Amino acid sequence: MKFKMNMRMRHILEGYSFISLWIVGFLAFMAVPLGRSIYYSFQNLSPSKSGLIADYVGTQHFRAAFTVDVQFLPLLQSTFTNMLTHVPLVLIFSMASALLLNRSFRGRMVFRGIFFLPVIIASGSTLKKLMEQGAANLPIFMDYDLYSTLRLFIPSDLLMNLLEYADALTIVMWDAGVQTLIFLAGLQTISPALYEAAKCDGATKWESFWKITFPMIMPMILVNTLFTMVSSFTRADNGVMDYINQRVFADNDYGYASALGWIYFVLIFIMIGIVFLLFRRSLSSMEGR
Amino acid sequence: MANPQAIVDKLKMSDKIDPAVKFYTIKKSKNFVGNAFYYFVLLSLAFIFLYPLLYMVSKSLMQTWDVADATVRWIPHELNFHNYRVAFTEMKYWQGFSNSMIISFGSALLQIVSCSMIGYGFARYRFPLYGVWFVLLIFTFLVPPQTIVVPLYMFFSDLGWINTHLPFIVPAAFGHGLQGALFILIFIQFYRRMPAVLEEAARIDGAGAFRTYWQIMFPLGRPAMITVFLFSVVWHWNDNFQPSLYLRLPPFYNLAQRMNGFYGKATMTAEQMSSSVSSGAIGMAPTVLNQMMAGVVLSVIPILILYLFVQRYFVESVERAGIAGE
Predict the structure, then answer these.
(1) CATH of domain B92-261
(2) Residue A140: closest CA among B52, B38, B194, B104
(3) Average confidence (pLDDT) over B205-215
(4) Which residue of B127, B148, B151 is in closest CB contact with A12?
(5) Using the beta-carbon criterion (under 8 Å), do A121 and B299 form an inter-chain contact?
(6) CA B5 to CA A79: how far, in whole Å?
(7) Residues A270 and A130 occupy one common structural domain
(8) Alpha-carbon gap, residue B228 to A46, rounded angstroms
(9) Domain boundaries, chain B
C-alpha cells in the first residue's frame, strides 16, 4: 500500500515538474498582469516622478466607453462585423484549397509550397505595408486592362462591384494559409477505406463529402473557427487594437485603456462561448458514436 | 450466401466501381478536360498567392518613371538595383536584421525547448488540478494581448527591460510569449499520439522521468518541432505589435518596424530628375514606391530563404505532427 502511494506521488511530482515552468510563466506573464489590469480599469492613473499615482474612480471608465467615447463603439462594431464575414469566408476557402491539395498530382509539393507562402509574406506588417498602396486592399482585379476587356461582356456597374469583391476575397485567401494546413492535416487522417466503402454502396463524390469528409473534420472546423477568430481580433490592422495602443502611448491614459481592453476581452469571450455552444452538439454526437 | 445471382450482381457492380485510388489521383489520359481545368484552378490560385511577392519584387526593381508609367506593369524597362542600396542604408539593415534574428530565432529555439517539455507533461501525466491548468492553457491562447498590455509594459519597464530583447526571450523560455499556448497544444497532440512502449522500455532500463523525456521523447518530437520553429520564427519576424511596445528607440527597432517606417527617400539626384523629365513623366509626384518595396523585399528575404529550406519538411511535419488534434 505504501509503495503504491509512493508511485502515485512520484507520478504527480514528475507531472508537475514538467509543467512547473509554464505555471511560473503563467503567474508572471498572465495572471498577475490580468489582475493588475482589472485593478487599473477602476482607477485613474497619472504618471509622476515616483511612478504611477492611482486614484479610485469606480466604473467611470466603463461607463465612459459606452457613453462618452465617440470612437470606441463604432470601432468595436466594425471589428465584430468584419469578423462575422471574415470567418466563414476563410473557412470555406481554406477547406476548398485543402481539398484541392489533398489529391495527388504532378507538382503537388511545389503547389503546396506556394499555397502556404502567404503565411510567410502576407502576414503582419508586410501585408499592412502592401495594403497602404490601394486604400483597403491590393488591386489585383481592380485593374484598368481587365476592366476595359470585361466591360464588353458585363455591364460596368456590376463589373465594378464584382472586381471590388474579388479583391476583398484575395485578402481572405492570403489569410487562410494556416487554416488550409490544419484542414489538410485533418484530411490526411481520414482512412481511404471509408471512401472505398461508400463508393461500393453507390455514393457519389458529393454524398461522400458530406457524409464522410465533413463529419470527420468537424473538430478541425472548430479549431479553425477559433483560430481565425482569435487571429482576426489580434490582427495588426485591427481598429480596436490600434485605438487601445493610442490611449496607452499617446494619451498615457492607462486606466481607460485597461477598461477598454477588458470590454474587448469580455466580448471576445462571449463570441467564443457562442461558437463552442454551436459546435457542442455536432462534436458530442460524434463522440457518442 | 451461396446465391449465384447475388454473386453475379456483385461482380457486375464491381465492374462499375473504379479503384478507390480514383479519389486521390486524376486519371491521366482519359480525363483530359477535367485535368486541364484542375490545373487551371491550381495555377490561378497560385498566381493569387504569388502576387504579393511578384508585386514587390517587380516594383522594387523599377526606376521611378517606370512606376509612374501605366504601360509598365510587371517588367521594368531596365533593372534598377539602386532602390535596394537606398533601402539598405536608410533602414540600417544590419542593425535591424540582427535585432530581428535575436528576437525570432532566440524565442523560437527557447519555445521549442520549453513548449515541448510542457506539452509532454500535459500529454503524459495526470495530476490533481490537471483540468484547471489545461483550461488556463486554453485561456492564455484566447486572451487578446491588448487586455494585459498596460500591466505587462509597466512590469517590463520596472525591470528595466524596455529597449532590450528580454521581453521577447524570457516569456518564450517559460512557454509563453507569442502564441506559446498554441505551440504547447501542438506538442500535446503530438506526444499523445506517440506509443508509450518506448518510454516504458527506457523506464525499465532504469532511466528517470527527465532522462526518458530528454533522450527519447524530445528527439522524437522533430516533426512537431519543425512546425513550431517555422511558425514561431515567422510570427516573431513579422510581428509589429509587441516590438512597437517594447522597442521604443530606433537603434533597437527590428526589421518589421524599420520597414514600416520606411517610405523611401524622396530626394532625387539631378541625373534621375533629368531622365525622369526626358521619359515624359512631367508633373508626376516623385514616387518612392519602388524604394519602399525594396525595403519590404529586404525585410522578408531572410524568412523566405528559411522557408525555401524547411518547406519540404514543414508540410510533411504538419501532417505528422497533427497540428489539428483528434
Answers:
(1) 1.10.3720.10
(2) B52
(3) 88
(4) B127
(5) no
(6) 65
(7) yes
(8) 41
(9) 21-82, 92-261
Is B296 close to A129, i.e. CB distance below 8 A? Answer: yes
> Which one, of A18, A165, A8, A195, lies nearest residue B124 by Cα?
A18
d(CA A58, CA A168): 43
Strands (E), chain A: 43-48, 51-56
- Chain B 68-127, residues with CB within 8 Å of chain A CB atoms: 70, 73, 114, 117-118, 120-122, 124-127
How many separate domains does chain A show?
Answer: 2
Task: Please choose, from the candidates B233, B226, B100, B117, the residue with its C-alpha nearest in 3D space to the C-alpha of residue B178.
Answer: B233
Give me the CATH number covering residue A225.
Answer: 1.10.3720.10
pTM of the model: 0.81
Q: What is the pLDDT of residues B58-73, one digit of tens each?
A: 878 877 776 666 666 6
Give chain A's radius of gyration (CA, Å). Answer: 25
Measured between CB atoms, which of B46, B146, B175 is closest to A22?
A: B175
> Nearest-CA neighbor of B125 among A133, A86, A9?
A9
Q: Tell me B143's DSSP state.
A: S
Higher pLDDT, B272 or A138: A138
User: Could you tell me which residues are beta bridge partners of residue A104?
Assistant: B25
For residue range B269-316, list pLDDT tens digits in order.
444 444 444 344 444 344 477 788 888 888 888 988 988 888 777 766
Alpha carbon distance B108, B115 (integer Å): 10
Do the interacting molecules here have an ipTM over 0.90? no
Cell 508540410: give the residue.
B315
More confident residue, A226 or B80: A226
Q: Are A257 and B152 in contact (CB under 8 A)?
A: no
Chain A, residues 178-237, CB within 8 A of chain B, namely 178, 181-186, 188-189, 192-193, 195-196, 199-200, 205, 219-220, 223, 226-227, 230, 233-234, 236
Amino acid A182: pLDDT: 83
pLDDT score at A173: 82
- Cα separation, B282 vs A211, in Å, equals 64
Residues A34 and A146 in one domain: no
Q: Name the closest residue on chain A to residue B319, using Cα atoms.
A: A185
Pull the grid cell for residue B87: 533601402
Tally C-beta pairs within 8 A across A and B: 278
Query: Looking at the complex, does the CB of residue B15 fall below 8 Å from at least one CB of chain A?
Result: no
The amino acid present at B112, given as its one-letter code, is I
Find, among B154, B275, B36, the residue nearest to A47 by Cα. Answer: B154
Element (H, E) at A226: helix A218-233
CA angle B248/B252/B255 to nearest 5° reads 105
A257 φ/ψ angles, rounded to the nearest 5 degrees: -60, -40
Domain interval for residue A88: 42-288
Tell how far CA B278 is from the center of its chain. Answer: 44
